[in-house]
Amino acid sequence: MSSVEAPHRAKADRPAEAPASAAAQPLYAARQKVYPKRVFGKVRSVKWAVLTLCLALYYIVPWIRWDRGPGVPDQAVLVDIANARIFLFWIEIWPQEIYFLTGALILGAFGLFAVSSLFGRLWCGFTCPQTVWTDLFMFVERWIQGDRNARMKLDQGPHDTNYWVRKSLTHGVWLLIAAATGGAWVMYFVDAPTVTMQILTGHASAQVYFFVALFTGFTYLLAGWAREQVCTYMCPWPRFQAAMLDENSLVVTYRDWRGEPRGKLKAEGVGDCVDCFACVHVCPTGIDIRDGQQLECIGCGLCVDACDSVMSKLGRPKGLVAFETLKNLSASAAATAGMAPGPDRFKAGMAARQMPRFVRPRTLMYAGALTAVALVMLGAFLMRSTLNVTVLRDRAPLFVRLSDGAVRNAYTIKIVNKTRDEAPLALVLQAPEGFHMTVQDVEDDAQGRPVLHRRADGIAQYRVFVTVPHGQRIAEDTPVSFRLLDAQGRAVASQSSNFLGPKS
Amino acid sequence: MPTKIEKDGVTGRETTGHEWDGLKELNTPLPKWWLWTFYASIAFAAVWMVLYPSLPFWRGTTQWIAREAIVAEVAEANARNAPMMARLRAATPAQIAADPEMRAFALAGGRVAFANNCAACHGAGGQGGSGFPALVDDDWLWGGSLAAIHQTIAHGIRNTEDEAARTSVMPRFGADGMLTNPQIGDVAEYVLSLSGRSSDPAAVERGRTIFAENCASCHGDNGRGNREFGAPSLADQVWLYGGGKADIIAMVRNPRLGVMPAWEGRLDPAVVNMLTVFVHSLGGGE
Q1: Which residues of A touch B139 (CB under 8 A)?
Q2: Residue A27: its chain B contacts at CB < 8 A?
Q3: B68-165+260-281 maps to which CATH number?
Q4: Do A198 and A254 belong together in one domain?
Q5: CB B9 within 8 A of CB A7
Q6: Of A303, A332, A351, at which residue does a domain stop?
Q7: How far is residue A258's CA from residue A317's CA, in Å, rounded to a whole number?
Q8: CA angle A40, A41, A46 (to 5 degrees)
Q9: What pLDDT digit, counting tens, does each position of B220-265 carry?
């Protein structure tokens, strides 16, 4: 039956209903628990370093203090939702500037694309919180229950005191780490020392407890129980990252041209792979890297370390499992096709390799997009004004006819002050001769200009009237402009508007 | 139901047994816990239906209703505002206007109360309309001071519900035969001349006498109006019912007398005070 057939014919051709065979594979499968083995090596060392750095950043950043003056949070990084401000060291983001957050997310996305196209799944294997916390939880597990074999034996053995002590100890430590994780999360939203004291003394708000509990629960669940299933079943990234990778990207691969056919160490005519399963036993997602590229592979490279240590014990060259491009892999395979296993095949295969091409259209485009977004962001940030004036012209009515026949327009002027500077500003109207401006509820300075007070880190609002005397000929629509002058007489902000009059 | 489970030749895996127009699917077993999450969601929905108003005539065991929640929120907000409302009730509009805190509250609250109660006649921005006085200009029929505005809002104009309502009547000079049509035309020409718009000096001179005898007692000798009677100034550029000659003739012949309800019994005294301060701030307050 082919898919090009008309649907109704396809239906008609359908064979008679057959009962499902008793041996049919079930539609739902129980999880196969993974027992990753401890591993030493270069990649593992890098992973430890990245893990330490990420966790240190996560836990320490909320505690960095940053003096902003009285009455303002002194936390360097704080998302103050109640007061609608994001504090980032010397930067203070207002709600209408949330596009900076969008820009940062776009930067992150392009950065991820660029890194993936160059080095494969670096993010998944090294820096993703799921990986970092799972790694940490596995470390705890290994510390309390022992390595792979000991853990398997513990799970298969009797549920005696030893079993329960080790299990509850493991889960206890996991929960402690999870609580610290959830506790640190809320510190990005409320003052860290204050909320820590409140939590410890039981005086924190219900929201704080809710979010601490939520993030504690999910850290425990995702890093302790779900682990690799988050990557294989829940995360969308493994699915569409295939579009970022190509034959020039560095990925974790098994050099089958060198390893095959697998066989015992002493056997004749076999490749370098001794089928020791070291790569499988260390894998945190429980796959066999020798099966080729797989969605489940997070590219952490622990199998590289495992295989290298076996190879060096056997006195064979390292790199049977390695970070390698698919292009090199097929070049090596082509160069060694038909050759018998042995040092000659290894030399021929390695000689066929080339330096990975890091500069290629795909990476250039990602780099270009990254640079463009970064430049736009930087430009927007540098041109970000900390003092704005907005002018809203009254629309009901468009203009007012006064009893002496003068025409008046009313405006609402808002001074948006993103700084703590409260120095008053003089308001000046730029308009044709005869236009007269008054501001409700303010006093004039020595030059007769209305003095407007701004609010520190806030918006001050004024009602402004502009009047044209009776008899003066005005267009139906006259452009006018309002400027704010500082004490030195410099214009610090301005906004144009219109003065509307009757149809002439 | 699965119809025919086959073994796929390429992968060596089984199919699910389902077939859609010739398309078959390999069986990739879903993790069991995924299924349990699905069941947990169903259980959650069942619990939810018991707790909350999920079916017609079922209020849920929590008795939670969105409408009551909003009523409670409004009550909470009112309770929060109660001390300020008490201050606004006790103060005079002048005291409110002089106190920055009370003034800010009154302007914000007055804006809302104005939109709810006043905008239907006076316009969303207080711009008024034909027969409905503009509140943004500097022309006031009954006075534009805080006290005068408060009196107008509290008791209204020419209504029958409030004894203290401001009231005045303009005679129907034409309809009741008090003036003839030519006389009305002449007095209209005189009224036009008060704002410098007449082109018939002879008619103005005839109208001047008629005006002095019939109109000046309320509108004043030179047509400047009199706020005692709500008699508008005829010498300015603001016309409630239109300033053309035909409009003036129509008003002299058969005057229209605007009515405004009294708000004292309808609105909280604090709201009346807020409205007073708000209207005063629109641009014409005296």
Answers
A1: 402-403
A2: 16, 27, 29-30
A3: 1.10.760.10
A4: no
A5: no
A6: A351
A7: 11
A8: 110
A9: 988 999 999 999 999 998 999 999 999 999 999 999 999 999 999 9
